[in-house]
Amino acid sequence: MTFSQNFLGGGKGGGKGGGKGGGKGGGKGGGKGGGKGYDADASIADARLTIHDAIAADWDGTPGRAVSAYQPSDDIKYLSQTRRLDLLLGVAMSAFTVRAAGTGTACTVAVGGQDICTLARPEIALLERQLGWVRAYSDLRADREGEILVQLDEIVSAFSGVSAFDLPSREATAEFVALTQDVAIMVEMQVKHFLRSPRPADFSERVVPLIDTPDHSTFPSGHSTEAFAIATVLARIERGQRPQAAGGGILFPLAHRIAVNRTVAGVHFPVDSAAGARLGCAIGEAICALAGGGNAARYDYDCNIGPAGGDPAKHNPDFTRRALADFLAAQPADDVTVAPPANPALAARWQAALAEWPDRGGYDPDGDGDPQ
Predict the structure, then answer these.
(1) C-alpha span between 357 and 372 (Å, rounded)
(2) Does the N-terminal or the C-terminal CB of the chain have fewer CB atoms within 10 Å?
(3) Residue 154 belongs to what domain range?
(4) Which residues, 6 or more positions from 257, have their beta carbon under 8 angstroms from its beta carbon?
(5) Residues 152/213, Cβ–Cβ less than 8 Å
(6) Per residue in 279-337, pLDDT tens?
């Protein structure tokens, strides 16, 4: 369940259905709520029918009030929050494409025709070595079970716990968090399809995952992708910081913890999370560039390549906090020019989100020692 489904007034989950929402929210509630809702709608319709016949039946069609001119296309406040998100998602996704790369063992994500991330599929021998990490991380299951079960359905409550964007005064920021997660899901699922790789449980019945193994590819991790995309966008909105400058804060360590929890649960390898971190940062940077202007950075990752001079047969990277710090510190310079979308709604909503954080100045957006 995404943030847009779970938090934005029931959002898409409610719209799409009593169905799933009722399923998780409890059969009885869904059943009764659905029944009463239908009866109430019918009663309102009946009441309006009699009102119309009583006081408006003699209307000849003459206008009774003035209607103003058409409004500019950057004004989307007239829409409900769910409809705004639908619009913004359509605008953002129109810029993204995903394609196979190389000999089919890699995948590239592009924005506006410019490549922002290329990932290479992990070799089976590497995933076999990674099982040792899956076994080691399983010792943390008792400590992290609560987090893992909550994050099975949603990850945004972890971010709203450290960043108060779920307040009425930060509505636009919450919409960008929802938008970011939805974009990340749409992109990551295409990448997963191209780079389809087996899960830990496929290698051994002794993994015994804490949660059910998902049916889609282990690589890259979707939770990692979404968490790092959200962290990237929140850091830019709240503080004007890019990933390499925001790494010392709490957003990226939180994204890292969410990613690692999936390895603890037994459904992901460390390289899945490392790949998701790159893809997530690339998606987040692209969203910031599409909405706020400027360039985005490109993130590539081939998990099969180890340190120079190392034994390839022993290459088995973990995704530790130190690995996270090294990755963020090595972020490439701006090298992707992202053209703004033709629809101005995304940029207008971005400015609304920035205005919700009036004290965001004084930070170092690009880590060059020059606060802005």
Answers:
(1) 14
(2) C
(3) 90-305+321-355
(4) 147
(5) no
(6) 999 999 999 999 999 899 999 999 999 988 889 899 999 999 999 999 998 866 568 89
